[in-house]
Amino acid sequence: MGQTLYRRPLPAEAIEFSSPEGRRIFAEALAASELDGYFRLAEQFHTQSAPAFCGLGSLVVALNALGIDPGRLWKGPWRWFAEDLLDCCVPLSTVRERGLDFDELACLARCNGAEVALCRADGSDAPAFREALRGASDGGSVVVVAYDRARLGQTGSGHFSPIGGFHSRRDLALVLDVARFKYPPHWVPVERLFHAMESVDPATGRARGFMTLRARRSGLALGFSLRCDGESWAGLAGRLGSIVGGLHAHPDLATLARAVAPLTANVELRIPTAPTHEQELVEARAALRALPGYGEIEAAVGADAEAVTALLLAMVERLPARLRSSLEPVEERSAALANELANLRAQLEAMGGAV
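Below the sequence we write its predicted structure tokens.
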């Protein structure tokens, strides 16, 4: 049998959470009311279930800590976020092979009921990061960081973890490392952690960063979701961009629908298991079919009509003015459809601002 590993020693600058010093820092931050958000995270803290699942593991902790109902069955009668429920946007088989990048994780968070504020390190600074940590101290939001382990003196490279707390006087952040088989939770200097976020992810050519997650006030989008299946997220964004760039060239709704139809291979319709959420999806789909132009779209693309219509609605501001009248009004009359479209627009935006 080959060599096996049992954990790694933390570098000197990191302070193990359970050490005497780590506990002392925790007590000081708790007394300063900077750890109110820690307890919900601690209730949900778990170990990522596969080596490349740090993003999924971090998101499971965050979504459950925020009290978001997934609207879909986990096991038995229970609805609960687990890594295998985070199967939209990027297939689990792909995540298991190569992990997730920063935008893909944000897409997954939005797709599963979170509002996401995304901050890349090259477009932000350490004071803004500290402000996000302070904002999360009351438990109303969760900060997840994407960073380069090597810049913290750790083994490995890109990694995601939620932040469990902040000690402002000592300027330390509590990293709840979801790879608990490798490193325990630990305190690290905020400046060093931010520097580790400045590293460029070779998969995207862009800097890493941090994201702040909150429970979506307007409700869940549980039906239509973009899925990067069989190609890279960047590849899908490229195809989308070329289609969006040519929207004004199409003279009528049927021609436009046929141009968008190839994207429906990347549109998944998920079916929720909670009765309330099932009804919301039924309402959203009925609102789609009630559009004045739906019959024309259905005649042009057949069974793909719902997915095409949802995509067109998500891109409605980019459509020729002469075609908008047959697509715009229904969204205003259906909150369920509005939620679905808000989710699709957030996903499209995550793919390079195509909308």
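The two ends are 52 Å apart (CA to CA).
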